[in-house]
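Hi Q.,

Before the meeting this afternoon, I wanted you to have the nicotinamide-adenine-dinucleotide prediction in hand. No need to reply - just skim if you have a minute. The sequence and ligand are here:
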Amino acid sequence: MAKKIKVGLIGTGGIARGCHIPGYQSIPDDCEIIWACDVNEELAKSTAKEHGIKKVTTDYHDLLNDPELDAVSITTPNKYHKQPTIDALNAGKHVLCEKPLAMNAAECREMCRAAKDSGKILQVALQMRFGGPARFMQDYINHGGMGDIYYARAQALRRRGVPGWGVFIDKEQQGGGPLIDIGVHILDFTLFLMGYPKPVSASGRCWDTLGKNPDLFNFLGDYDRSKFTVEDMAVGFIRFEDGQVMVLESSFMANVEREFFQTTLMGTESGATVRASGEEPIKIFTEKNQQLMDVTPRNIPEVKSSHTAEIQAFVKAIQNGDPSPVPGEQGLILNAIFDALYKSSDTGKEEPIDLSY
Ligand SMILES: NC(=O)c1ccc[n+]([C@@H]2O[C@H](COP(=O)([O-])OP(=O)(O)OC[C@H]3O[C@@H](n4cnc5c(N)ncnc54)[C@H](O)[C@@H]3O)[C@@H](O)[C@H]2O)c1
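Predicted structure with the ligand bound:
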């Protein structure tokens, strides 16, 4: 029987309680959460009590000093991903770090180096690729259904969806707005389906006018407009080494018909529009014998929770000694693209993407 993996949570906020705890607790024979850590002591204590977690602390170093502990989930705001991740890896613990991997590519580099030196798993929490639509499309693409994918349009657009909780409007603690927060999911999903081509340069533009406007409605709760320091919308044009191109659109607030969370892939054999979930999440556009076909797949694998699937993959990889299911190097690629897009928005020029580490 495989070793039971002992896990600690660094950060017991929304994503820890909503996704990481249920994920680990879905496989009680394979893992057990033994530590809950949050700088908010009350929250750490109440989370531990509610979920039967034995040990509680406000200082994550306490977890790392525990020889019983095998792995940690880093579920803190983006500013607090880097140091706990590096310290955990150096202490010989495996790490599942929430997305985006870090505030910027420079931080990701340090984290990837620590993972390499420690030989432990660094997995980035990017759950969309564990869902049914991703699995269906990966299979379809691997069997040549799309031919060569040469263009993608990735969209994570909300009409009025600034998060009214947490620190998502604070550039200093998050590194950016919708681009880094929700754009990261659709960008990873799209790159995953394209086989993670190497990006070489990007051009982008960010805006912050709607997010700061106190007169505008917001679906996701109230927030202090004067503290809104991130972009409310970002658009990017990304070039890849082998000539592919992607357009990425991401917003917390935009004057669009509705929310769009989807990617459109165009290949030499067919095109496809893919959403992460919902009814009929995939539509394929192709041609047979000079007849144009729109195809709706009917056997998309059912995955109850992509978050749970991601956490199960993390635990299995530790037990089996497998490589990271979502390697830190891919988190670095995502942050390096964001760095180039933010820089390009300031300079007004196309910027190179540096993936070295
Ligand atoms: N994968 C997803 O779909 C998804 C969804 C939401 C959030 N996230 C990511 O999860 C992370 C946290 O987001 P959230 O919504 O849970 O935020 P949150 O504000 O609800 O929770 C973060 C918690 O971290 C704690 N914290 C801060 N610094 C700490 C430290 N040094 N040590 C211990 N605890 C510390 C805070 O007190 C807070 O309770 C972010 O990186 C966010 O991007 C991912």
